[in-house]
Q: What sequence folds into this?
């Protein structure tokens, strides 16, 4: 709470510093050129919708933020649960499951698909799951939760095979519902403005964040694309620049994503599966943290760096890191992709010794079999 409070106060300070008026309350459109907040009407030349996302509900599993929680409630538990069941094997569920596992909870993950983190590079995802199992995670893949009974003692979940079959019961002290997030537009009264949404409720925009209504724009989780704070931040900068008559732009091939477990998982650009599906010829370079001096000294040798480069041009197409401080290490490769660098460019840059970043250099060397 203290950290969150400091961060929000920091934003409030930036508002004042940059002469931004903060209108507190829930806004709703009353026309394409006006909104209402707490009974007061405001008009503007431009509006930017940035209302974010909310946790996807699951029929039969009623969230109370006490026994059955979303990510919000999972951050506010007043004791370590003896047994935490996570519904959903995606990023948020694994991050919070990892936190409570390290604090002593038994953690079971129930996932509808036959693998965790389905959008992640498959090789990385498989290795990631093995590490989590080694840490004590229990995975029930290809399974769905069909009901939840809450009592004073905890929650009894009914779990069935996703493809059909006999149900089983799982007892939990706390259940974390983390099956995804959806664009949050409730109460905005978009109909009054005539703003169009897609079949998933996301605000439709063009390549420059404009909706179908002149003067109304949208960014972040409420539009298509990865639901990441830094993606939304870049979009916010880009639309502000465009409204100021400049050339704002976001390169979606250079948006890193990070799973904040331990070890971390980070990626940028294409996965092997995406390159295969696109018929792109590519080369792979890999380097394990077991061979990195700093990782060995830290006692953190799980994982590896994986770099994908174009087979003909050597241009970096994707990078994936499973290991210590992966979220920091991916920044170098994000920069390289942004500037159209080759694997050889990364390999020829001098990396300090002993650092974890040497594994990035070695993986780049490995693209040409030189590690």
A:
């Amino acid at each position: 709470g203290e950290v969150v409070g400091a961060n929000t106060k920091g934003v409030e300070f930036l508002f004042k510093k940059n002469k931004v008026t903060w209108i507190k309350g829930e806004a709703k459109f009353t026309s394409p050129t006006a909104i209402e907040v707490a009974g007061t009407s405001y008009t503007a030349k431009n509006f930017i919708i940035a209302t974010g996302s909310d946790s996807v509900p699951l029929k039969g599993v009623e969230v109370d933020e006490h026994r059955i929680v979303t990510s919000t409630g999972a951050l506010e538990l007043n004791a370590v649960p003896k047994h935490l069941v996570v519904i959903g094997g995606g990023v948020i569920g694994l991050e919070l499951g990892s936190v409570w596992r390290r604090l002593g909870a038994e953690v079971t993950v129930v996932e509808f698909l036959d693998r965790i983190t389905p959008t992640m590079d498959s090789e990385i995802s498989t290795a990631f799951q093995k590490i989590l199992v080694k840490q004590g995670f229990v995975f029930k893949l290809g399974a769905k939760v069909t009901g939840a009974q809450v009592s004073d003692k905890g929650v009894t979940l009914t779990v069935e095979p996703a493809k059909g079959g006999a149900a089983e019961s799982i007892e939990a002290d706390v259940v974390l519902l983390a099956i995804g997030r959806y664009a949050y537009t409730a109460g905005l009264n978009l109909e009054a403005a005539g703003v169009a949404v897609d079949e998933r409720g996301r605000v439709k925009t063009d390549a420059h964040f404009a909706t179908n209504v002149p003067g109304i724009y949208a960014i972040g989780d409420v539009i298509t694309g990865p639901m990441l704070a830094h993606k939304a931040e870049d979009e916010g900068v880009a639309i502000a620049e465009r409204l100021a008559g400049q050339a704002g732009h976001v390169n979606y091939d250079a948006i890193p994503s990070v799973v904040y477990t331990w070890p971390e998982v980070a990626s940028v650009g294409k996965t092997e599966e995406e390159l295969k599906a696109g018929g792109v010829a590519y080369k792979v370079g890999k380097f394990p943290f077991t061979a990195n001096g700093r990782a060995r000294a830290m006692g953190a040798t799980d994982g590896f760096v994986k770099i994908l480069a174009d087979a003909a041009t050597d241009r970096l197409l994707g990078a994936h890191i499973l290991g210590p401080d992966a979220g920091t290490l991916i920044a170098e490769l994000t920069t390289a992709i942004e500037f159209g660098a080759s694997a050889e460019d990364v390999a020829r840059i001098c990396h300090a010794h002993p650092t974890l970043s040497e594994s990035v250099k070695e993986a780049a060397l490995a693209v040409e079999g030189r590690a």
